[in-house]
């Protein structure tokens, strides 16, 4: 993997059939939501965002999960209110937080363009400087329908404004 200047991670090498990518974030302050960007890149077959097939660059994000890691304990965090810029028919973004490994969020037929999904924490958390937020992107579908260039970010503002167009 290669960490990009914008915080995205370009994944290289052989394409796994299934995978779990764990992002460990430190961002002292209040966190109310997370955002997962699945980005394109010329280094990915077909530009992505999926790595498994240059013609059908689909991704299937089976489950997104979060944990608060402190010096004393690790606590699972509930995610709600999933939103995405686009969801494939039959594969809505809500599937990425339903607890079922056989469902997920997918983006066909909108290949070769970036997409995003956001998830609101059921309860906001306050991260101390020594705390970490672990976000796991689990991709269990198989056939290499895995993300080629993910970026995970946190959001501390009002979740009502989370998915506004950046131009606004």
Structure characterization notes:
By secondary structure, the chain is mainly beta. The protein is built from no helices and twelve strands. The protein has strands at 2-3, 9-10, 19-25, 29-38, 60-61, 63-69, 74-77, 79-84, 105-106, 115-127, 132-139, 150-155. The strands form four sheets. A four-stranded antiparallel β-sheet has the order 3-11-6-7, with no helix packed on it. The chain has a four-stranded antiparallel β-sheet with strand order 8-10-4-12, with no helix packed on it. Strand 6 (63-69) and strand 7 (74-77) form a beta hairpin. It is globular.
Strand content: 35-45%
Q: Average pLDDT across residues?
A: 95
Largest sheet report: 4 strands, antiparallel
| Shape summary | globular
Structural class: mainly beta
Overall radius of gyration: 15 Å
- Helical proportion? under 10%
* Helix and strand pattern: EEEEEEEEEEEE
How large is the count of helical segments?
Answer: 0
| CA distance, first residue to last residue | 33 Å
Strand order of the largest sheet: 3-11-6-7
Q: Based on DSSP secondary structure assignment, what is the total number of beta strands?
A: 12
Question: Could you list the spans in which at least 5 consecutive residues all have pLDDT below 50?
Answer: none
């Amino acid at each position: 993997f290669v960490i990009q200047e914008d915080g995205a991670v370009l994944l290289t090498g052989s394409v796994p059939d299934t995978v779990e990518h764990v992002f460990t974030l430190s961002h002292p302050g209040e966190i109310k939501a997370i955002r997962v960007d699945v980005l394109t890149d010329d280094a990915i077959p077909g530009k992505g965002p999926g790595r498994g097939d240059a013609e059908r660059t689909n991704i299937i994000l089976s489950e997104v999960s979060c944990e608060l890691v402190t010096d004393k304990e690790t606590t699972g965090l509930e995610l709600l209110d999933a939103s995405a810029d686009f969801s494939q028919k039959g594969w809505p973004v809500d599937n990425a937080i339903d607890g079922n490994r056989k469902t997920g969020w997918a983006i066909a037929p909108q290949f070769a363009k970036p997409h995003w999904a956001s998830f609101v924490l059921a309860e906001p958390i306050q991260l101390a400087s020594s705390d970490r937020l672990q976000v796991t992107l689990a991709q269990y579908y198989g056939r290499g329908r895995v993300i080629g260039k993910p970026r995970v970010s946190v959001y501390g503002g009002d979740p009502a404004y989370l998915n506004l167009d950046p131009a606004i």
